[in-house]
Write a structure and sequence with these properties.
Elements lengths: L1 H13 L4 E3 L7 H11 L7 E6 L6 H15 L4 E6 L6 H16 L3 E6 L4 H18 L5
Helix pairs in contact: 1-2, 3-4
Length: 141
């Protein structure tokens, strides 16, 4: 829960953990980032993950979600940003991927990915990435 996230993350850091798995839908990005800042551990030694919430699927909504993550956390970058779930239909999923890709290319997000995807969603995304790479060049999808 968000009200104890900061305390729990600080305890995890003291126990040796260095990965923080947050999500917009969990409402714990802010408290988790506060723990990162208070920990005294160099940011480069902590891996911070967040996720696009199902209600923020689509290009514009995802861009807004990413911006909100940075406002909530005050972090300079996010290590991993995932699509939390494959809701919203193909157009929304592809738009979400494109917004994440642009944020990655801008250096805001280091890695992007998906969670809770079925095989057919993965196949759809693979096809979309190939289309992007055919247009933008290898590795740019």
């Amino acid at each position: 829960p968000a009200d104890v996230a900061e305390e729990v993350v600080l305890h995890a850091f003291k126990s040796g953990y260095r990965h923080v798995d947050s999500a917009r839908v969990y409402r714990n990005e802010g408290p988790c980032s506060q723990a990162i800042k208070k920990s005294g551990i160099p940011r480069s030694e902590i891996f911070f993950t967040s996720k696009v919430p199902p209600r923020a699927m689509g290009y514009e909504a995802t861009k807004s979600s990413i911006n909100s993550s940075f406002s909530q956390t005050g972090l300079d970058y996010i290590d991993l940003y995932l699509i939390h779930a494959p809701y919203g239909g193909k157009q929304a999923r592809c738009g979400t991927w494109l917004a994440l890709l642009e944020a990655q290319q801008a250096g805001l997000i280091r890695s992007i990915g998906v969670s809770n995807y079925g095989v057919h969603h993965l196949n759809e995304l693979e096809f979309y990435i190939r289309e992007l790479e055919a247009h933008n060049g290898k590795g740019k999808g």
